[in-house]
């Protein structure tokens, strides 16, 4: 099977499964992560048979963050992707476990450092979604869906306090978005991250010009 | 009463009323609009007795967009602010109607062109919230709360189609955010809008670098 055929099959499957996903974890998220992962795989010499299904299917199932099942999202996504790949006659059976592994360790919040190149690449591609303009869209979409305050009125830019991303959306810049670059595994991903990190700083600079300088 | 005292009283009142408002229409939105409106009022020579309560209270009550009561938000906000001002002994009675008028015509989607300077200034201040980094936060927070798709996968930047802001969050840039500058009433607001509009273009440019160039 060619990489393009695997992509096509996986997207057809994902399209059916992901209809109701939130906009931060929808088919376009899969599309972006897939493009990034393929690019990284090409540069770093990773196995596309593993990277393609893992990247398209890594957020196949996303339970809401406040759901008890939330921690099972990756395991259930991996299981569904595996079942799907088993149904494709030409897909190499011996690679399905590696696809499942990449999906299961992808989420950075789990704190697992992947041991395979393919899993590292998926994590890097997914991490690149947490930096740049795309990350800004996703950060505030999550804030909206959770009715979370945008920033601390007293100290929006965390100058005098520890960031608290559970409380303020903008604090996620300090706990995650601005940290992405140094958490990436591959040099190729680091190069992609650099202009995106720069844009996050531009966003913060622009906000300093727009927000009232004193409270009330 | 000094302007600072009116601000203080109105914020105390708003703080009680706005506890559950969404992050695009919360107390910090009132805070930002108030600061902008006071600045514009100073430059344009408007009456602060009217501008201050109107700006702090203009989104006092915000019914959800999908609620039948949605169209009543401004009317009910105006009525609550009027009731509150009537309870303040030192507030000039004859200005309460002008405060109500400014609040009632503020929402740009109603399409009413204000006839008083104070109402123009409130509309300008509120319109400045629809441009720049703050507008980006608010646009995607709304997308998240309504589970709206970020952009069209086929044509994110509306090159080959008419924008549809009901369907895609990014399309709001084309139907509203990038239009703000030419819809403002005062020269002072136009000057504030310019760097904010520029930042919207920077955001779109950055997105063109991040989004996959072809679909799937």
From TrEMBL, chains A, B:
<dbReference type="Pfam" id="PF01966">
    <property type="entry name" value="HD"/>
</dbReference>
<dbReference type="GO" id="GO:0016787">
    <property type="term" value="F:hydrolase activity"/>
</dbReference>
<dbReference type="InterPro" id="IPR006674">
    <property type="entry name" value="HD_domain"/>
</dbReference>
<keyword id="KW-0378">Hydrolase</keyword>
<protein>
    <submittedName>
        <fullName>Phosphohydrolase</fullName>
    </submittedName>
</protein>
<feature type="domain" description="HD">
    <location>
        <begin position="27"/>
        <end position="130"/>
    </location>
</feature>
